[in-house]
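**Discrete fold encoding**
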Amino acid sequence: MENANTIAPGRLNMSLKSLSSSRAYLLLCLAYFAVMIGYYLFDPFGFEHPGRDTWHHLAVLRELMASPFDPSNPHLPTDEPSRYYTPLNILAAMVGQMFGIVPWALFSFMGAAMCVAFCAVTWLFARRYYKSDWAPAILLTILLFAWGAQRGHAGFHNFATFISSGGYPATQALVLGMLSWFLCLFALEEDRFYRLNLALLAVLTATIVITHQFSAFIMLAGTGSFILFHKAAAMDRKMTLLAALFVGGLLSLIWPYFNPLDVVLSASDPRWESDAKEMTTISYLILMAAPTILGILGFRDAKTGRVRWDILAPVLFFTSAYFLLVALDMSIAHRFPPAIILYLQLALAWATVSSSFFKKTSPAMRGILTTAGIIFIGFSMYIASMPRQMEFVTRASHGRMIPSVDEMQAHLPIGSVSFATKNIVYPLQSTGHRVVSIPRPEPVAPSLFERQAATDKFFDADTSQAERRALIRKWKATHIAFAPPDMTRAIAKELRKFGPSRKFTRNTEIITIQTMEVE
């Protein structure tokens, strides 16, 4: 018994020591992402709600799979380009075409791939930047859970967003941007593969700009800041790397599918309002960023007293821009909170990595803090998963959307064009059939302003049947599609006069316009 009592603690200490930072990080990634990736791989996860723009991205993959090198507009019956024809989407479409993967499954697989890639680039960047074996685990946890609220939204990088938006262009840009952070730090600190790294950084910069222009602005601001404020690298090396970023930006302008500069300079639809308008309020920023305020403790190196300008400068810049845009009442302001939070989280990771508080506390206090952290993370994961749980309930009571969408695809003839309401337009255009308009801004499709105005008028209660016939002739519509939440019974009755109708899951309805009614 004495030997057993004396050996047991030693074995326990050896077991704890054997749990290296690498293994701990892998276990953490599995804890955070295993279930999520499982759904992405084996279930159409996050696709059921007809109002989600996930369907919007499925249309892109479907068109690229049909014609990867000369695709038409995936949403509208026009020759206008699409800003969604990005390098990763084209590559994914070619893989899907090669292996016969249906678009919704392909997009789901992309979500799983981005989750894995996010874990990988967090590992690479954190070890290089913080010079700590445990920094990846700390940074990953902070990026996913150091939020005042778990709300999923394109452009965010919290746990809730990865659940259903892993394959979105904004998420792709986040992952590629963090990879650019690692590459620039590696090139600043290492002589190995220097020329190769310069070329990779230029190509990667071009890819990020093409993928999502606003996210590229957020991520590449960090890349430039890491280069400019690096405390040890020579100035000529810094200038060379900044030149590589500039060259990458120029390379993006020769992308044959669309010009990123056109996206940036195009005017937005003045009638369109984001469904996240409350995100432009300062109170919302405070709510979302609340835990990251502690990141101010990481802006200064406690040992040297130096200010970490590489992360402080982006925080100051994006915060100033946010307040200016809020004062001007510009809707683009809602895209700035995640940028502010991101760089505050990098500072919070510095504060955590540098702190000796946890080591100095008693074992009992460490146990309490660890337990509290686990409870908070578990609760955050539960809150973040609630929308997905509601989707499962909706599936059980109203049927699944994907089989219904497949029925719509079979029902509609090739070349059909539909006037469609907001709760059916996204699933409908994901079938490969075009609609007159989509209810979102598309900077490189100038006709969309007029198209959306025509769609709004078509479904307006005050529009006469004669006016609707004129709109049908002008926009060459062959079908009318609507969902019950978008339509009163009186208007639906008037629309059915244009021809026979068919109902699909959740009472969505498609009317085939009779030629005699239009002429």
